[in-house]
Amino acid sequence: AQTVTQSQPEMSVQEAETVTLSCTYDTSESNYYLFWYKQPPSRQMILVIRQEAYKQQNATENRFSVNFQKAAKSFSLKISDSQLGDTAMYFCASNSGGSNYKLTFGKGTLLTVNP
Amino acid sequence: ETGVTQTPRHLVMGMTNKKSLKCEQHLGHNAMYWYKQSAKKPLELMFVYNFKEQTENNSVPSRFSPECPNSSHLFLHLHTLQPEDSALYLCASSQARRVMNTEAFFGQGTRLTVV
C-alpha cells in the first residue's frame, strides 16, 4: 500500500520569494512516479511536475523544481519567484502502477502568496 | 480547461433524492476515475474504469453507483445519501493503466451538499 504525507496544512510566502512544500511517501514498489498537483480556487486540479523514481536528476519546470531524496522517501516542491497566481492547494501524489494505475494523494498544503 | 468537463458544478439534494453526476472527456483517454474530496482529508479514490470496465471499487457504499457507457463518459448515480457524503466529487481521466508516468487530467468537480 502507498501512503503520502504532507505535514504542512498551510503555508504563506511573499511575492517573489521562494517557498518549499514538504512531502514524504511510503511504497513497497521498486518503480514509481511522484507528482505535484495544484488546485487553485477555481478547483480544477492541474499537474505541476512529475518525477520518476529511477531518475536521480531532480525534475524542473520553469519556476518549479523538486528535491527528490529516494532513500529518505522525500519529495519536496520548491517554488521560486512566487507569484500571486501560485496561491492554491498543492497535493503530492504517488503512483506505482502495477495492475492498476492509482494515484495516492496527500492531504494537501494550502499555499498563500502575499503581495 | 483540462478537457474534462463535469456537470453540474453544484448540487444540493435531500437524503431521499436520486441524482446523477456526469463527467465527459475529449482527450482520447481510456481510463476514468471518481475521487471524493472532503475537507482536511486526502483525496479518496472511489472507482476506476479502464476501457469501460470497472477495475476498482475502493469499498464505496452501494448508495454510489458508477456507470461508464463508453470511454468518454462517466456517471455517478446517487441515491439515499447521507449528510457525511457532502463533498467535492472529482472526475479524472488518463491513458490506460500500466502507464505510470501518465498525467491524470481532472474536471472542476461537483460540489455536493446533502441536506
Task: Give an overview in words.
The complex is a heterodimer of chains A (about 120) and B (about 120). With about 120 residues, chain A is mostly beta strands. Chain A is about 0% helix and about 50% strand. Chain A is built from no helices and twelve strands. In chain A, the strands form three sheets. In chain A, strands 2, 5, 6, 10, 11 and 12 form a six-stranded mixed sheet that branches. A four-stranded antiparallel sheet of chain A has the order 3-9-8-7, with no helix packed on it. Chain A is globular. Chain A starts with a strand and ends with a strand. The mean pLDDT of chain A is about 90. By secondary structure, chain B is mainly beta. Chain B contains no helices and eleven strands. In chain B, strands 2, 4, 5, 6, 9, 10 and 11 form a seven-stranded mixed sheet that branches. A four-stranded antiparallel sheet of chain B has the order 1-3-8-7, with no helix packed on it. Chain B is globular. Chain B starts with a strand and ends with a strand. Chains A and B meet through strand 5, strand 6 and strand 11 of A and strand 9 of B.
Main structural class of chain A: mainly beta
Distance between the termini of chain A: 41 Å
Task: Report the major sheet of chain B.
Answer: 7 strands, mixed
The total strand number of chain B stands at 11
Helix content of chain B: under 10%
Q: Radius of gyration of chain B from the CA trace?
A: 13 Å
Run of helices and strands of chain B: EEEEEEEEEEE
Strand content of chain B: over 45%
Number of strands of chain A: 12
> Which class best fits the helix and strand makeup of chain B?
mainly beta
Rg from Cα of chain A: 14 Å
Provide tags for this entry.
heterodimer; A: 115 residues; mainly beta; 6-stranded mixed beta sheet; 12 strands; B: mainly beta; 7-stranded mixed beta sheet
Short description:
Chain A is built from no helices and twelve strands. Chain A is globular and about 45 Å long. Chain B is mainly β and 115 residues long.
